[in-house]
Amino acid sequence: MTIGLFIPCYVDQFYPRAAIATLELLEKYGCSVSFPAAQTCCGQPMANSGYEHLTHSCNEHFTTLFADYDYVVCPSGSCTLHVKDHLHASNEQAALGIRRKLYELTEFLTDVLQVTTIDAYFPYRVGMHQSCHGQRGLHLAQMSELVAPPFSKPLQLLQQVKGIELVSLNRKDECCGFGGTFCVTEEAVSVKMGKDRVADHLQHDVQYITGVDMSCLMHMEGILKRRGSKVQVIHIAEILNAAVLQPATV
Amino acid sequence: MEQSNQQHADLARKFNGNESRVNWHDETLWWIRQKRDKIVWQVPEWEALREAASQIKHHVLGNLADYLEEFERNAQQNGVTVHWAADAAEHNRIVHSLLQQQGVTRMVKSKSMLTEECHLNEYLAEHGVEVIDSDLGERIVQLLKEPPSHIVLPCIHIKKEEIGELFHKYLGTPEGNADPQLLTHAARLHVREVFMSRKVALTGVNFAVAETGEFVVCTNEGNADMGAHLADVHIASMGIEKIIPRREHLGVFLRLLTRSATGQPVTTYSSHFAKPRPGQQMHLVIVDNGRTVQLGREQFRNSLKCIRCAACMNTCPVYRRSGGHSYHTAIAGPIGSILAPNLDMKQYADLPFASTLCGSCSNVCPVKIDIHNQLYQWRQVITQNGHSPAAKTAAMKVMATTLSQPKVYTLAGKAGRWVLRNMPWLVNNRLNPWYKQRNMPEAPKQSFREWYAQNKKQG
Amino acid sequence: MVCTKQKTGIEVHMSSRNKILSAIRSNKPGAQPLPGITGFTAQQPDTERFVNTLQSIGGRVVRVRSFEEIIAHIREAFPEGTRIISSLPQLAGIAETGWSNAPAHSLENVQLAVFKAQLGVCENGAVWVTEQDIVQRAAAFIAEHLAMVLEESTLVATMHDAYLQLHNQRYGYGVFIAGPSKTADIEQSLVLGAHGPRTMTLFLV
Question: Which pTM value belongs to this model?
Answer without folding.
Answer: 0.94
